[in-house]
Amino acid sequence: MSPATRLLVVSNRLPIVLEKKDSGWTLKAGSGGLVSALAPVLSHRGGLWIGWPGLAVERGGSWETLMGEGFRERGYDLLPVLLNEDEVKGFYEGFSNAILWPLFHDLTGRCDFQPAYWYTYLEVNRKFADAVVEHGRDNDFVWVQDYQLIHVAEFVRERTANRRIGFFLHIPFPPLDIFMKLPWRNQLLNAFLSYDLLGFQTQRDRRNFLSCVEYLLDRVEIRKAKDAALIEVRTQDRSVRVGNFPIGIDYASFSETARSEEVEQRVSDLRRRIGPYELVVGVDRLDYTKGLPERLQAFRNALQRFPELRERALLMQIVVPSREAVAEYQALKGEIEQLVGEINGEFSTPGWVPVHYHYRSLMRRDLVALYRMARAGLVTSLKDGMNLVAKEFCACQVDGLGALVLSEFAGAAAQLKSGALLVNPHDIEGMADALKAAFEMAPAERLRRMHNMQEVIRKQDIFWWVDCYLKAALGVVPEDFRATREYVPPVEGDKSWVEV
Ligand code: ADQ
User: Fold this and answer.
1) Ligand 1 neighbourhood includes 381 CB (under 6 angstroms)
2) Does residue 163 have its Cβ closer than 6 Å to ligand 1?
3) Is 384 labeled as catalytic in the residue annotation?
4) Cα–Cα–Cα angle for 397, 15, 149, nearest 5°?
5) Is the CB–ligand 1 distance for residue 354 below 6 Å?
6) pTM score, whole prediction
7) Which of 64, 230, 350, 399 gives a 20 to 30 Å CA spacing to 185?
8) 284 classed as catalytic
9) Three-state DSSP class for 417?
10) Sign (positive/negative) of CA torsion 127, 129, 131, 134?
11) Angle at alpha carbon of residue 168, lines to 208 and 462, rounded to 5°
12) Which of 1, 6, 4 lies closest to 136, judged by CA?
């Protein structure tokens, strides 16, 4: 980036948690991986983060003062885009979470294709675009994040021609026959093509996107870009480069925390509390894409078929509350609780309860202690853009003896297949077999697999991801970018424009 380039990040949520309490407003910095990756770049170069504060709030008053004061010292500014309750319903709960989220995870049966959601999605995307135009400068690089904001570039370009704008999709991009079900499929594809650089998590997602473009749009040309790691899509009036950039975690921070005295202490406390059993851990947001009922059924199946795992394995399943107001999420919670009750009812013995289920968010150090102590990690999403839990689990394996059971439909599988036990999350018996294999694996094999995964996650961490994306956006692909391609499985039926 030339020194004058400023980074302008646009995401649905601002990197803060704003809450109204009896005593007034409180504001905390957000703690996700994206915040920790982008904050140093923003602080270093100066920049602006545009997003929704997460609540329907009125402009003015103490919350806005708090926001300005709290962030000035960090070296970058926050710009809130305010949404009213109808907008939150149509744009966020409607089009984003009841159409794009299930559709992009191949779960068409859960889509509610209400036309009204589409119109509100466009209106709100226009609001974000207006904020970009009004608060941006010509030589900014604008980086739009995720599926809630696909139309931002299109609306920015209606008002101003000279902005460099990139987009990153954190969730998967579906195959053609699924994407075609979207009533607004061509509008959405054209909106994607309004960016300068499109980033997907994996080659799978990029390939799906390019197939949709090739099949559904006229007068487009798809070919390898000059920098061979990228593909170029040419329309009549513009050219868009398309790449895959697997998102990472702050490996050093997770690994250091896992080695800290505080976490060691927590591991000892936890060991005393759970007894001599071997811990299997699952950590997920409450979501139907995470395959939670299937995972519990697999654990039950393993206890039924492999009695040697009884009074030996203990599954600690942590579920983070999410989208609680939505009826299908409540139903999912009920289904999980019922399965946990059934398994514990069937198998518990005095002193051993096979499933410990917690429905809450955890402090980082408690999460790290769980990851560190676990003999096996279960990440069995039905589909996932990447899945950061898989990477965090590995980063915290201080003794290197834990085994990762990983869904082949999580984006992380492309990078971690040399170390993980890959499973089909719809195959209950197959997952049970993998759990048994995890328990039977010789220590040398565990160490070898974990080491392979840790090396990839350490090298391709969240800072590497930001770096690769920004260098690609500004025309230079760093040498180590090519490393991502080594880990991507070959796929049948590739088109000539996809490198294999
Ligand atoms: P998510 O669907 O939210 O993200 P994921 O990648 O697993 O999924 O990230 C979840 C995060 O929440 C992890 O960092 C994890 O540590 C944290 N978390 C989970 N349970 C927790 C608990 N009980 N307490 C505290 N923290 C908890 C979307 C896409 C993914 C993609 C990411 C990033 O759906 O596929 O990997 O964006 O691009």
Assistant:
1) no
2) no
3) yes
4) 105
5) no
6) 0.93
7) 230
8) no
9) coil
10) negative
11) 115
12) 6
